[in-house]
Amino acid sequence: MQAVFIVGEQRSGSNLLRLMLSQAGVAAPHPPHILKRMLPLEKSYGNLQADGNWSQLVEDVCRLVDRNPVTWTEVHPLDRDEVARACRERSTVAIFGAIMDIYAQARGGTAWACKSMQYSQYVDSIEHYFTRPLYLYLYRDVRDVTLSFSRAVVGEKHPYFIAQRWARLQRAAHRVRQLVGPERLFPICYEELISNPEPLLRSMCTFLGIDFEPRMMEFHRSSDAKSASGSSQLWENVGRPLMSNNARKFLRGLTEDQIRICESVAGAEMDLLGYDRVHVPTGSEDIYSVDVVRSFEEENERLKKEKRAMMDAEDAARRQHQVSVLTERVQYLEGMSPAQLVELLQYMEEEHLAEGCVFVEKGTVEDCMYFIVEGSVAVMDGDTVEATLESGVCVGEVGMVSSLPRTRTLRAASNLRLLRLTNVQMQQMMSQSPALACKLLWQISGQLASRFSSVVR
Q1: 186 forms bridges with which residues in the sheet?
Q2: Same domain? 289 vs 384
Q3: CB burial class (10 A; 0-12, 13-18, 19+) of residue 181?
Q4: What CATH number did the domain enclosing 284 receive?
Q5: Which of 88, 94, 345, 380 has the fewest C-beta atoms under 10 angstroms from its C-beta?
Q6: How far apart are CA 278 and CA 215, in angstroms?
Q7: pTM (global) more than 0.70
């Protein structure tokens, strides 16, 4: 299958483009953002050559797709065995490629496109696995992107942070172009796409090696468009005809101060893409102090909270159901946000043990602790089972912190899933994410206090 990646920033017409591609026979589903969400967690699954770890990663990625807010009806639910067989190596990228191939085959296509946009940040992994992948670089005026994000129920809300990310992603897309050359990256200006679509679409089809289809401009009549537009407030426009005047709305929708922030933060990238400046000439960009940026952060968080409260309840539930795949292994850790749980997983490694397997021997000195994800653990002194621990608790924390010999043997009382955290990983967390480490240590302290109080009684 020919792999096509749409790169750039969101709120730039990527849903419009993917629906146009679908009308030309390219399988372009609504993305579950597999690489963005799962690649950072890949190490937490441990050695993928171990069948249990590999199967769990396949399972979790497939669940992420099965729970997508816009259902992939042609392959729902995904056949886990089929996905695993289609992988040429044991990696997240391979699972992603297998799933996209399976979807494209179900749609009768010979190529697929993914519009996750931020895949420019994973270009090394993409280039390693796929054979001559193609890239469509879709870009839009940062000021209109800022206006769009400010009204959307997701994403950043303050112009400073929207423009900062927009600029970073444009630079990433340009690095992709430098890496693969113009023969594998095709630039698409959003403003040109909506104002004069046919010549641009014909050139794009030539680049992709597919036939241009006039119905590409009738994308809004497709079942895919109707499904997406009815799934979220974010995609309502894809159910309507092409909006040829949907540009430079920032002149009415943003204040002068907001435009100045955009042009100061992302001016260099605007210049590179040919966008004219309105208020900030080149070389006259405003510089923002630490205190000013801190005030921007406070305002950004306030605005995001307001927008989240406005999200359609059903849409919010679908999104939460999908994202919970990332945190279900440690969701029993109370007081941590989903983002913190995802970050925590990056310091851990998963292990799968068969019933009867001993993973801690009394008297040994080890530098790790374990979180029980699924199954039960027998706490033993010799041949005597003193207690049975179920999922949702940690074990071995005293030995990890103190480096003292283990006082009990731990054996899998059933098939077992564990997350292992070493002393070295804990030290890394304390150095890199002290607030996260503090929260985890607080959780561990609570469990220790509970056990101690039961012993005292």
Answers
A1: 136
A2: no
A3: exposed
A4: 3.40.50.300
A5: 88
A6: 37
A7: yes
